């Protein structure tokens, strides 16, 4: 199996003539799945798909999927000047456990790469993190040994509640990652992740940079959320004026969304608006894979009913006869009430009163195959946060409940493409990934799933 470095060498050799004008989008499950595609201005390029976690034995459909995790994420191999990272938390070296687990080596490798980038290559590193509950040894080490500048977002002071749940890597303002993977060693071997990496595309990376700049501004000492953001933070790339791009020679339009609304300068599409827009524009189907799904808030007190996504899905199924499938995670920390909301969706398909809705909910379990895997907390879970329709691929960083869109930092990547069987089509590849999991032995219809009482701890 080719390594990430070998893949990059092949790309540069095969497409050297187009290098200066080619943007490459890699939709990745960093430890999970990566789709590499060409963007703005030109030609199709090599693409590959990766998945995890360890011992994932789901059958692969006859597409370009390859079973391999990113041991040395290729995005860091391209850095020349800057690395900018926005993250929820950092546990890359496995020291958060009272015992050592060998699967932490991939996270440790990433931490070592970051330290050597700053220390040896003199790369400028900027990090925005959520306010840690205790010490954050990883970012302290990066500040001490790699010269990283670290800023912390205190959402209690900025908004009264919330966290930064974003997972963003931005390299030289040319390449970036967005997706479900935290800066946690488990994300590379023990948790099923999905995200997007975009290579050599300064047009979109510049827009991603504006999202990072918002976080950086708010992480400054004494910062407050401005009533009106300075014009330098504004964007022209949104749901109304998406950027026209070609992925592997296949036409598409794309933009980035953000939450919460106060973090969205002029022109930025709010994340929840992007999600609802994708649902509303579907003609045939809406397929969703997320860890948590609640038509309520979860962490605010008092909790509130928040049916924004739920209403959009019911209307799509009821009014337009759209096929809706939800693949929701079940693990040791699932809230016991979540199945009640999901069953209220699933039951609509059984109506005998002339209402022919096509909604199906399945629960997805990532089992522990070894005793060592069973011992690892906050692991063996499908941590995905994506949606695919017959027109659009959406890849985000937020769980689907009200808090994540009201007062939590998160972002989304939206790719609009028509239905096509061309191998470079990002939307079609995401659809194949969805069906890979939907049809696997890890997926069970909610009506036949054996629930047990669990408690939830946020991931």
Automatic annotation (TrEMBL):
It holds the Pfam family PLDc_3. The keyword Hydrolase applies. The chain crosses the membrane at residues 23-51. GO terms for molecular function: phospholipase D activity. Keywords: Hydrolase, Membrane, Transmembrane, Transmembrane helix. Residues 160-187, 378-404 form the PLD phosphodiesterase domain. Belongs to the phospholipase D family. This is PLD3_4.
């Amino acid at each position: 199996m080719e390594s990430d470095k070998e893949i990059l060498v092949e790309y540069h050799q095969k497409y050297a003539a187009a290098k200066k004008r080619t943007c490459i989008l890699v939709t990745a499950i960093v430890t999970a799945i990566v789709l590499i595609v060409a963007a703005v201005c030109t030609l199709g390029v090599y693409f590959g798909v990766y998945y995890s976690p360890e011992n994932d034995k789901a059958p692969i459909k006859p597409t370009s999927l390859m079973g391999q995790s990113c041991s040395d994420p290729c995005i860091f191999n391209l850095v020349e000047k800057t690395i900018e990272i926005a993250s929820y938390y950092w546990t890359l070296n496995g020291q958060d456990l009272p015992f050592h687990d060998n699967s932490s080596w991939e996270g440790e490798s990433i931490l070592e790469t970051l330290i050597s980038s700053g220390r040896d290559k003199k790369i400028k590193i900027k990090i925005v993190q959520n306010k840690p509950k205790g010490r954050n040894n990883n970012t302290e080490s990066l500040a001490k040994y790699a010269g990283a500048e670290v800023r912390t977002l205190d959402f209690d002071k900025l908004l009264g509640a919330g966290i930064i749940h974003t997972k963003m890597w931005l390299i030289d303002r040319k390449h970036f990652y967005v997706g479900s993977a935290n800066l946690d060693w488990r994300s590379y071997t023990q948790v099923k992740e999905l995200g997007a990496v975009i290579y050599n595309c300064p047009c979109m990376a510049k827009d991603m940079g504006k999202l990072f700049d918002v976080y950086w501004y708010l992480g400054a000492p004494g910062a407050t959320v401005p009533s009106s953001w300075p014009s330098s933070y504004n964007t022209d790339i949104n749901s109304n004026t998406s950027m026209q791009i070609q992925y592997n020679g296949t036409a598409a339009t794309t933009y980035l969304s953000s939450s919460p609304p106060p973090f969205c300068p002029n022109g930025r599409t709010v994340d929840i608006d992007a999600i609802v827009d994708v649902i509303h524009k579907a003609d045939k189907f809406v397929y969703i894979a997320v860890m948590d799904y609640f038509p309520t808030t979860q962490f605010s007190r008092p909790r509130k009913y928040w049916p924004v996504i739920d209403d959009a899905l019911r209307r799509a199924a009821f009014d337009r006869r759209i096929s809706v499938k939800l693949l929701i995670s079940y693990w040791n920390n699932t809230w016991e009430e979540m199945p009640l909301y999901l069953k209220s969706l699933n039951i609509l398909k059984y109506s005998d009163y002339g209402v022919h809705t096509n909604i199906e909910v399945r629960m997805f379990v990532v089992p522990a195959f070894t005793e060592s895997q069973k011992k690892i907390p906050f692991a063996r879970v499908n941590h995905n946060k994506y949606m695919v329709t017959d027109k659009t691929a959406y890849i985000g960083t937020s769980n689907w409940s009200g808090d994540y869109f009201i007062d939590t930092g998160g972002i989304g990547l939206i790719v609009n493409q028509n239905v096509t069987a061309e191998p470079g089509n990002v939307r079609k590849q995401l659809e194949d990934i969805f069906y890979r999991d939907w049809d696997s032995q890890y997926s069970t219809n909610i009506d036949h799933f054996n629930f047990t009482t669990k408690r939830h701890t946020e991931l």
